[in-house]
Amino acid sequence: MVVKEETGGDETTGSGGGGCNTTCPVNFEFMNYTIITSQCKGPKYPTKECCGSFKDFACPYTDELNDLSNDCATTMFSYINLYGKYPPGLFANQCQEGKEGLACPAMSPTSASDVNAATAASSRLWLAVFAAFSVFVKLL
C-alpha cells in the first residue's frame, strides 16, 4: 500500500477533478483503533510497530481505500488521527516498502469473511489520500 498522506500543502491527487463522490461503504466510525494506538506511540513512533499495526488495520479494506470515487481513505485517516493524535504524514513518511507500496499479506478465507473484505493474494493497498488527508489537516 502506498501511504499518501498530505502533510499540509495545496497538492491534490486523484483522477479527474471531482474528488470524492460517494460515502464510504465501510463504517470506520465505530472500528476498534487500538490495534494501531496500542502499538504506535510517541514520541518516537517506532516504524516497525506503527507500520505493522497500520497494515493490520487497513489491509482488509484494500478495495475500498483504493477507490478514489469514495471518501474511505479520508474517513479512515480522520479517525486514526482522532484516536491516535498522530503527527501529519507519520504513516506516509515511515511506511514505505518500495514504489508499489506496502504489501498486504494474503488473507485466509476465514479472516477475510470476518471483516467482509476478501482480497486477492499478495494484493497491494494503494492509499491515495494526499488530498483527502490534507483536507482533514486543514480542518484541524
Task: Give a short overview.
The protein is mainly alpha-helical and 140 residues long.
In words, what does this structure look like?
The chain is mainly alpha-helical. It has one domain. It has helices spanning 34-37, 47-58, 62-66, 72-84, 90-94, 109-114, 130-139; strands at 2-3, 126-127. It has a two-stranded parallel ribbon. The longest helix is centred in the middle third of the chain and has 13 residues, at 72-84. The model is unreliable at 6-18, 108-113 and 115-137 (pLDDT under 50). This is GPI-anchored protein LLG1-like domain-containing protein.
Question: How much strand?
Answer: under 5%
- The total count of helices amounts to 7
Structural class per helix/strand content?
mainly alpha
| Rg, Cα atoms, Å | 14 Å
Domain GPI-anchored protein LLG1-like: 26-102
Protein name: GPI-anchored protein LLG1-like domain-containing protein
InterPro entries: LLG1-like, LORELEI-like
Topology:
Layout: E1 2-3, H1 34-37, H2 47-58, H3 62-66, H4 72-84, H5 90-94, H6 109-114, E2 126-127, H7 130-139
Parallel strand pairs: 1-2
Main features:
globular, two-stranded parallel sheet, about 40% helix, mainly alpha, about 140 residues, 2 strands
